[in-house]
Amino acid sequence: MTTHTPRIFSGVKPSGGLTLGNYLGAIKRFVDMQGPQFETIYCVVDLHAITVWQDPAELTDATREVAAGYLAAGIDPSQSILFNQSQVSAHAELAWLFNCVARVGWMNRMTQFKDKAGKNAEKVSLGLYAYPSLMAADILLYHATHVPVGEDQKQHVELTRDIASKFNHDFKAEDFFPMPEPIIEGPATRVMNLRDGSKKMSKSGESDMERINMTDTADTIAKKFKKAKTDPEPLPETLDGLKDRPEARNLVDIYAGLSEVTPEQVIAEFAGAGWGKFKPALADLAVAKLGPISEEMARLMNDKGEIDRILGEGADKADAIAQPILDRAYDITGFLRSRKR
Ligand code: AMP
Ligand code: TRP
Question: Is 202 part of a structural domain of the chain?
Fold first, then answer.
């Protein structure tokens, strides 16, 4: 069996501004995984963003903003490859091969598609339906072995394994594609909406009050936590006491994620405290952690040339890994390739 070098790939869509969910569930963890143990490749997945309508000028802006978020949070371009997906054409090419490997039945089981399409399934783009096959291409194009994501992406990484395995099997290319592992760890892999603890915090919810944006000011952050939905009970003595209290559990998990402790430790510190005590403590913590990041994002957004340069250089490095793997995938598939390049 071939062993693949430990390599991380992950991505964030530029389909609006970054949220606290993106930060705790993804970007903060990407930063923590930089180091000698893994090669790290982080992408602004712009091709994914257009599965739903994006205004062209806003797409460009949002692409730079996600890149600025990565950089401000601590992704270091000398340690990690940072680029935007559309600058490396191999993503779209491998996705086509995978569209012909993945089965319609597999796609029909994707819960995120069902949620997003809802009753409108006939009207959404074909890209939204095929999206998981592009995501599989993103990961497998680099022979990535580990994929840090939030809870909502688990099924897509599992589908990626199914695609890798069917490709390897159908073309008798044993171990050509690795079986990537989803890494879903920490207290905040599913940050919930601040107004409804049964819904995920997302970039595109109806009301701005339901999410914390990475670019929110200190006052806005404090106001949003103050108005966050809770229940009348104080915090319990043990974590078990939060079982049927989704909104309360969410705020405890956010506190744990931001302060890098476990939810148990948060409960130990705040057992018996009411919201009048906990919410301001949470707001102060969030402002202390997010403030410097949003300041740095603002600084970077004033230097678009610098962001574009970093993404361009990252794309060159990404392309150098991706192209030979795509070429081999084409060879394995039997495509005639006689152009001199
Ligand atoms: P997206 O914004 O959909 O491109 O998501 C990018 C990454 O952030 C993925 O790994 C998601 O799982 C993660 N993510 C997005 N929203 C949340 C959330 N509310 N809680 C935890 N992780 C999230
Ligand atoms: N689909 C992911 C999301 O919406 C983003 C994404 C695209 C991704 N390609 C990826 C995540 C590859 C991890 C690896 O959140």
Answer: no
